[in-house]
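Subject: for your reference before the review

Hello V.,

The reviewers asked for a structural picture of the protein, and I figured it would be easier to keep everything in one thread rather than splitting it across files. Below is the amino acid sequence we used in the manuscript, unchanged from the supplementary table.
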Amino acid sequence: MKLFALLVSWLVLSVAVSFGQKETKGQTFTSLDPVGKADENFAPGLLQFTDSDLAQVLDIYRELSGRTIVRSSSLPSAKITLKSATSLTRVEALQALDTVLAQNGIVMIPQGTKFVKAVAAQAAAYENPPVVDLPREQLPDCGTYITYIVDVKHQKPRDLTAALQPFARMPNSILGIDSARLIIMRDLSSNVRRMLQVLERIDRVTVEEAAAAPTKKKPKARIKG
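And here is what came back from the structure prediction:
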């Protein structure tokens, strides 16, 4: 019975995605795209998996993204459970899948415009996730693996890295370069959002530095005779 329900859900979603592809023929999608890139909405409960095999979930991912999935041979044999409670756009559906896959030790990494890699989370440090430069508020709050580069204004990057490390999820995901005044993050998008929020609070001029900073002398007023 469970297998029958899964098959029906897969067929319905595949038909819905195929119908949407008539309007988006030739386009590919990722969870990093603007939410409004594809206008179609999938009804609540349409994205549904119950202890589903990873291969079935990746088939749906391929349908939604329009991309070829390059799958690592070392992926964990996860069973995926997910049921959408609200209507979702195509991009939101991909964000949901990225998140549930990351929760099960699998990271999805967009490559160019036609491919997406599926790799085990412990091997992600050896991959090259896309560099994203969106403002913090526009980063998707999901489990997509990204690279984000931050210009440090006041503090030493290595000092800030130590403060950010507890918020990281991926191994060796934060690199501080003092000479370039940069921090490079390679982590899930939702974690990068949190770390950027922390950075906004701690990358500030200290009271001591502000007091020691030279002040500009006001020019003396000149009296014209």
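For the response letter, the relevant points are probably these. The first strand starts at residue 41 and ends at 42. Strands lie at 41-42, 48-53, 68-71, 79-83, 88-89, 106-111, 115-120, 145-151, 174-177, 182-188.

Happy to draft the paragraph if you're swamped.

O.
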